[in-house]
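We include the entry.

. . .
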Amino acid sequence: MKKKNSTPTPHDATFRQFLTQPDIARDFMEIHLPAELRAVCDLSTLKLESGSFVEDDLRQYFSDVLYSLKTTAGDGYIHVLVEHQSTPDKHMAFRLIRYAVAAMQRHLEAGHKKLPLVIPVLFYTGKRSPYPYSTRWLDEFDDPALAGKLYSSAFPLVDVTVIPDDEIAGHRSMAALTLLQKHIHQRDLAELVDRLAPILLAGYLSSSQVVSLVHYIVQAGETSDAEAFVRELAQRVPQHGDALMTIAQQLEQKGIEKGIQLGRQEGRSEGEREATLKIARTMLQNGIDRNTVMKMTGLTEDDLAQIRH
């Protein structure tokens, strides 16, 4: 929800002068809310909320105000949108639902755990009378009944964690990706080779797609020996062997370079430690007390014991 920072239009200024007053807003809602909605709202708890959901470039056509309140079902909001353009927006119902969802999102971002009930209200002041369009957003679809069924039911879920591997193996071009997504976090990928190789041998994927999958394993997986995994896979899937061996060689080279770098770092670290011990020995020989030496060098009592011996 944006803060209002543009110059208000006469429509916007007048609308907000009235509807931002809780007593006036309460009268408005008592008069215009449908009885079944009014019955669930505690209008005595109305509280004006800051900001606006209307896009900056549409402020000359629309104004809005948001009130929070308590309902019989918990927290709620009433969002009043006024349309003061001469030609009504035929997609107003969709606009109302978008702003309602934005209010829900703002509510969640404030730390609440449940979605609030948001009641959109359109206040129409256009020249055309009566208002010509439905305010039921589902009516904007070619098949409102089908849309209503879709958006009032649980959405499709693909939970790869509960699909048996044998079933995944039959998922054709999606099999390899699904199998990897399911097992990407296991430490030992050796067993995965036995499941993955037959899927790749089936020939549903190109070499570039196989390479992408293997890079995914290397980057996102938790295996301690990705190189061995890739080499084994290259032997088991010869039609992609060259591409896979290239990856294995790259991993081997990276491992060598990492080992060299680690050796250098360890060498530097060991050299720094020897220098610190030498300084500490000199300090002790010059009569500086042990606590001061430890404080200045960062060494421990055990470290100083090594010097003594």
